Amino acid sequence: MTLSTTQQTITFDDKVVRQFMWASIIWGIVGMLVGVIIASQLNFHQLNVTQWLSFGRLRPLHTNAVIFAFVGNMMFAGIYYSTQRLCKARMASDLLSKIHFWGWQGIIVSAAITLPLGFTRGQEYAELIWPINIAVALIWVVFAVNFFWTLAKRNEPSLYVALWFYIATIITVAMLYIVNHISIPTSWTHSYTIFAGVQNALVQWWYGHNAVAFFLTTPILGIMYYFLPKAVERPVYSYRLSIVHFWSLVFIYIWAGPHHLLNTSLPKWLQMLGMFFSLMLWAPSWGGMLNGLLTLRGAWDKLRTDPVVKFFIAAVTFYGMSTFEGPLLSIRAVNALSHYSDWTIGHVHSGALGWNGLMAAGMFYWLTPRLYGTKLHSIPMANFHFWISIVGILLYVAAMWVSGIMQGLMLNSTNAAGTALTYPNFIETLTAIRPMMAFRIIGGAMYLVGMGLMLWNLWATARSGKPVNETREVAVIERGTVDNMGAKATFLADPVTYFFGGLFLLMGWIFLPRGADITALICALAFGFIAVKKFATSHVTWSQWYDRLLENWLPFTVLTFIAVALGGLIQIIPTVMVNRAKNMEDRIQQVYTPLELTGRDIYVSEGCYNCHSQMIRTMLPDVLRYGDYSRMGESIYDHPFQWGSKRTGPDLAREGGKYPHSWHFNHMMDPRSTSVGSNMPAYPHLFTTKFDQKTLPKKIAAMVQLGVPYPPMTAVEIKENAIKQGIEIVNTLKADKLSVSPDTQIVALIAYLQKLGKYDTPEVEEKLLKTVPELIPGPVNPDKNRSAAAGE
Amino acid sequence: MYKYVIYENGLDWVPYVAFGVTALVFLTFSIHALVLRKDRAAELSRLPLDD
């Protein structure tokens, strides 16, 4: 380390920390209030008062608000505060900090407006429409530039472990978000994801799982590694353990996404990979938890007196519990019971409320007195907040465990011969968990009250002081003594060359043809042997390389990026190749007609996927209840896929043709008229609202561009086709004395629901493909298809 | 090549290779952590408290 004798007085930008903190608390209360409302809607369907406030539209608002608004703002507050201190430098640009803060709040407001209006991409935690996606990416880049610029002008040579976690967060979230949100717009408020079916499922849960990993976990671990030692006034228990914790966590986490798709039509090797890596996550997660808990060594008495320590220790304990439960739920046999049930909801909330929420509270109680140069207004009130939160979480989580296990057991129960279901009526299983769903409201409401108390307590604290921006004398670092590691020193060092050389040879073992693969394996083993020998003779050089890396933010960032990108590439590239019609086993989804496609967009817009899956798993009870298990090819044209992750209602993968049009008509008008005891909202607005004909040709064109084999049609033909099918449905309804206009949304939705589960053989699809002129890249105007076909 | 990977159970080996790679990462950093000098570890762990 080389420090000059030059001293500099710096004033930290704590205004942006205060801004993010208040934003987090306020949005947190809003997000949790929406959570309590939607939990109530599950019990009292009458609370779905208008289409804008129905469960399907509010649930994405709840999840997005809690993840991106509550935890997002909390994370930024913690990162801005700790990065400045750990770098001994003010944030590089006040302007970028301001753009980041106000841009992020603008994104949250846009989400709060568009989601209730039904503008969604239809993928969990990735619902926001494409203009907002672009805004998120841009604001994230602003944040990244500001952060890395601050690292570049730091006055502390070494990068503390908290900064590693922040680096991993920034680069991984950027990668995940961009890849999962690549879409083709059809209007300002609508787009189709470029991925379909199984490919979409894999990319979505690669993103979705790692949103939990790299948005809700790694930045909060960074915050733990900074704020917990500060709160207990002693260094982290084991710095050595934190090194192993960081690298093994970031490397393993990224692979585990497929555990969200166990027992589905996802290829088995990917399911095994997801399960395998999820189980391995136990080790780093518990290493991190123990490191956090043991930091309190010799200071356990603080647990009695200091509410900040109480919140932190309870949060770390919840981290340990939920990271124990996560891998457990990733075991295929356990997942067969837990998936699509409330058990997953309980697991998610023990992480979100317990780990994220309590860490946020601890950090805010520690920060506010320091940010306003005063003392906490009321310690007893903070203690009450702690206890009401703990009781609330436990009530919520226990209720969801009981509910999930009970419903899972009921849904999977068959007679001794395995030939019939014990509870064939889905509603029966729903009725059984109703009391648990009520306890969830109480638990959630208690947590919300605690949040309100925190707001009051911290507001009173802030009013008793005044905003303070900390000023500090720091020794200025001599430029050129750090951040001087070039590409050669980074990548041609022994640790890197041996690691990637070995990896390259192992890949050869998998991908090379027979004969060559064995050669590659032998070379890999020999290479490994040489690496071990080399390490034995020069391990000091290897350690020096890593120590240098810690004083060079750019090479460190690049290596972290490679670590996280590797897992994604190995999973996604083979799946991208496999998701083509010619690779499908025995069934290919029938292409949606224009009216059915419109109906599908309405299904997505209303958030039906929040309660209904479209994936019959390869399990006997699923097959007995819903029909033949779903094949990979049966959702090959679904942009986005709608496999779902929770069954509050039954699976709809083979809904088509199960009931007459009139049943769907009556069910959507009043679900209880056809399904007694249902908690589904009614959708009367679908009967009066006309479906969107104007953008339909653009939607078909986008589908063609994505490779869906539509026959050439002009814009007029597309609209005519939709209305013609609408009239056919209306005529059928008339026979049952039901009347509606053929251009209404309900007609389109019925058309879609009746198409679910319809498939062709691959041969039929191959013939269809030959009639289509040019698929990828295709024109956005479908009329161009027409002329291209005519010209051939 | 891809035919082998996709149709002939070639991909069944991916989890094992992935496990091997992860074990390698885990071992590399565990060894590094173990050989880290005590005074250096203590110095780094005190960074948040260095006010």
Q: What is the CATH C level class of the largest domain in chain A, in words?
A: Mainly Alpha
| Overall body shape of chain B | elongated
Mean pLDDT of chain B: 73
What low-confidence regions of chain A span 5 or more consecutive residues with pLDDT below 50?
773-792
Q: Work out the count of structural domains of chain A.
A: 3
Strand order of the largest sheet of chain A: 1-4
The number of helical elements of chain A comes to 30
Count of discrete structural domains of chain B: 1
Query: Architecture of the largest domain in chain A in CATH?
Result: Up-down Bundle
Beta fraction of chain A: under 5%
- Sequence stretches where pLDDT stays below 50 over 5 or more residues of chain B: none
Helix content of chain B: over 70%
Q: What is the arithmetic mean of pLDDT of chain A?
A: 90
% residues in beta strands of chain B: under 5%
Element-by-element helix/strand order of chain B: HHH
Structural class of chain A comes to mainly alpha
Which superfamily, in CATH terms, is the homologous superfamily of the largest domain in chain A?
Cytochrome c oxidase-like, subunit I domain
Number of helices of chain B: 3
